[in-house]
Specification:
With 202 residues, the protein is of the alpha/beta class. The chain has a single domain, classed as 3-Layer(aba) Sandwich (Rossmann fold). The protein is built from six helices and nine strands, in the order αββαβαβαββαβαββ. The strands form two sheets. It has a seven-stranded mixed β-sheet with strand order 5-4-3-6-7-9-8, sandwiched between helices. A two-stranded antiparallel ribbon has the order 1-2. A hairpin with a 2-residue loop joins β1 and β2 (30-36). α2 (48-60) packs parallel to α3. The radius of gyration is 16 Å and the shape is globular. The N and C termini lie far apart (40 Å). The model is unreliable at 1-9 (pLDDT under 50).
């Protein structure tokens, strides 16, 4: 992969050609459709880590009517599926304008309550949430990833939880060790080198 490709999904490349497509996804009895395009993460299919994260959260989180924040939302897969399955409202944010436009289209298409916000991590985010969820942009660098994970504590309600997925071979252990300096972390699932982690800071 060249550097130009790597920057696309967590920056804005206004010259990138648009090639819209639709991705279908089934979560238990619910069917979803997502618009996708060039320049966004996992543009052709839902990636395994995100699917594993969703499946684990749905099994573990028993409450409905939550406030959810999806950080680095891409075209909105995590936030939209969680909002539908947990009968909740979601705020989705991303620094990538194309991804955010897709996320808003997908929110409306799947009839999800909430909104999309252009934001570099938590820069334009207000309020506190029951759940914060992210598949962090590892290729953006460890500093950016840790900023997303650690600053979640400032945007969680009491007893709220941060959920994230990370691969073992992409520094999961060192990142987990750093996050544990600020709160309690549990690895809820391991599969194919992916860790699903829940962090609580209160």
């Amino acid at each position: 992969m060249n550097g130009d490709f790597l920057e696309h999904y967590f920056t804005n490349n206004l010259d990138l050609k648009s090639e819209m497509r639709v991705i279908s996804y089934q979560e238990q009895s619910e069917s979803f459709e997502f618009f996708s395009d060039n320049g966004v993460f996992s543009k052709n299919r839902i990636d395994f880590g995100s699917r594993l994260l969703i499946d684990t959260i749905i099994k573990e989180e028993t409450k409905n009517h939550l406030s959810i924040l999806d950080v680095g939302c891409g075209y909105g897969f995590l936030g939209i599926v969680l909002a539908k399955k947990l009968d909740s409202e979601v705020i989705m944010c991303d620094v990538n304008k194309r991804a955010l436009h897709l996320a808003e289209q997908n929110r409306l298409k799947n009839r999800i309550r909430g909104q999309t916000i252009l934001s570099n991590a938590y820069e334009n985010i207000e309020g506190k949430y029951d759940l914060i969820v992210t598949n962090p942009p590892i290729r953006a660098g460890k500093e950016i990833v840790l900023n997303i994970l650690i600053k979640a504590k400032e945007h969680l309600k009491k007893n709220g939880a941060l959920w994230f997925v990370i691969r073992k071979d992409q520094g999961a252990n060192s990142i987990l060790k750093k996050v544990m300096e600020y709160g309690k972390c549990e690895i809820l699932k391991k599969s194919k080198g992916f860790y699903i982690i829940r962090a609580k800071f209160s």
